[in-house]
Amino acid sequence: MSSDSKTQSKSIFAKPPVKITVGSDARVYYVHRGTLEVHPAFDARLKASTEEYEDAIDWSAFDEQTINCVLSFLYTGAYQAPQATSVVVEVVEEDEADEADAADAGEEAPAQDGEEEEEEEEQEVVADEEVEAEEEDADAEAPASPVAKSPSHASWPPSPPSRSPPPPESLQSQASWPNSPSPMFRVPARSPSPDAESSIAPDSPPSQGLSDCDLNDRPLTPLEYCDGVTLITEHVSGQNVPDHERQGQDQEEESEQEAEGHSAAEIYLHAKVYSFARQLDFEKLKQFALNRLAQVLVALEQTDKVLFPYLVDAIRLVYKTTGIVDDARNLLSQFVALRYTTLIGENLDELITEGGEFVVDLSHKLARKLTTFSMAFKRVEYLTHKNEELKTESAEKDKELKALRDEVRRGPAQGFPTFTYQI
């Protein structure tokens, strides 16, 4: 018997590739049909939506960037956003360097007078600093005796305090960035559920507590915990690391690098891929694109990067191509509600004036946000009043304790017998 198997091969490369028409300019792509057939629902939807499915697939309604991501996912199970930001930064830096060289060459001759004045000022500052340094050294070497306190010394100003460290060159160098997930779908080190720990005291009045039944009384859910989002919580599993300080510093450094590694253009890219998967019932791609969209939004949530026009375009596309109940709709409207005060402007105003279901979703979330703010203020008032009551009660207890101590001290002088012991 031959060792070669005679069974039919199930490789995706066993069948010839099928042609795909992409974009408005009808660019031609090819894909092995086996990569489509391993996703039954996706393949069935393609057959139903394409008349000439056996000969060609018409994806002319989608641009090349979207289809490139789709094909990459079909073959590898993932796709990467194009890293165009680093190229732009390099070009800008080169242009700035060229402009600086040209400016130095052109302004070198006429700026001689100004340079002389600056040099004189610098020399004066250096001389003053040298005099102060010599006087400080002399004061440090002199013995601390009453003779040193002469009138001339008394009139001399004290040595200047040590200078504070210089401010950081950029915002990225400050340890103030939020924890954010890395490109491997890691999320910040938070509790597994935002509602796992409650800050409501057991003796709080019912009107001041957050209701477990009414969602309008609860804060907006963080982006990484929104419905449908399944980011891998690698940081959460490492919360019990003994060296908390080192872990916090590492997370802050990672969050800064990850925030810089994402661009606003990725928001629109993942929205386009999600829309494609949603329309053609490609469930795995839809979940992957939703996670990537959430990852980018979490990373950009606390940055000062300009998100327009990509954010507005993503919202328009998702709300145009999805149903009323959709995870991407909820995620995008949640992001805008959480960052509404920083996003408000001409671009967002234009989107709001268009009306539609996005404005309805956003208004509900903003109303919920305002409700939680109002409850928070009431909660602060209640806790402040409770604190004052406890202070008053504590003061009364202190008085009682002091009176009892005084009574104990005066006990023998008020007629109590005095015992003497003789050995």
TrEMBL record:
Region Disordered: start-end pairs: 96-216, 237-261
Biased segments, Pro residues type: 157-169
InterPro entries named among the record's database cross-references: BTB/POZ_dom
Residue spans of biased composition, Acidic residues class: 96-107, 113-140
Sections of the chain in a coiled coil: none
Domain annotation BTB: ranges: 16-83
PANTHER family: BTB DOMAIN-CONTAINING PROTEIN-RELATED, BTB_POZ DOMAIN PROTEIN
Protein's UniProt name: BTB domain-containing protein
UniProt source species: Penicillium patulum
